[in-house]
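Quick log. Single chain, no ligands specified.
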Amino acid sequence: MSQYQTAATNAPLRLFALLAAQGVPAAEADDLVAALEAGAVAGAQSEVVELDGMAPASQGARFADGWDEGVMAVSEALVGIADRDWQRRGGRSAGAAELAVHLADVRQRERADLVRLKKFVRETVLPGTQPHSTARRRVLEALGEAGGLCTAQTRNADGNVVVCTLDAGHYDPDDQPPFKDGKRGGWHKADTSIWNDLGAACIPHAAL
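-> predicted structure:
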C-alpha cells in the first residue's frame, strides 16, 4: 500500500502543475482533484457493498452476521470519506498555490544541482580523460559539448559501434597519417581503432 500512498501524494502535485500550465484557476483545479478523490472512494465503496451477504456459508450464521456488519461499517466509513473529499471542492486554493510554489522550488534546486554536477564533470572528470579517447567523447556528450567532434562510425571485431574521436572536418582523403604505414586515406581514430570510410562496416563522417 505504501507505493499507492506515495503515488497519491505525488499525483496532485503533478496534476496541479499541469492544470496551472494550461491556465486553469487554482479553485477549479481544487474542484477537479476533489471530484477525482471522491469518485475514487465512491468506486471503492460500491465494491465493498457488493460483499454484503457474501460470507462463506461454511462459517455459520454468527460469522455471516459479523461479516455483513463489517461490510456495512466499512461502507459507511467510505461514504463519509467521499462526502468529506467532495465538500473540500474549491476550499484548497491555498494548497494548490503552495504545491505550485513547491514545484517551482524543486525545479530550481534541480537546475542548481545540474549546474554543480556539470561543473564537477568539466573540472574534475574531463581533465582525467585522454585526448581523442572514447572516454573523453562520452564525457563531452554528457556535457552536451560533443558537437565539434567527427561522427564517423565503424564496428570493431566484437561488433561494438565505435565513433571517431577526432575533430569534425578532420577527414581528408589525401591525409598521410603517422599510422597504418602512412597510407593516404583520411583515417578516423578512436582509442586503438583506426579506419577510413571505405570499410564495409563504416558509416561515413559528417564533417561540420
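The mean pLDDT is 76.
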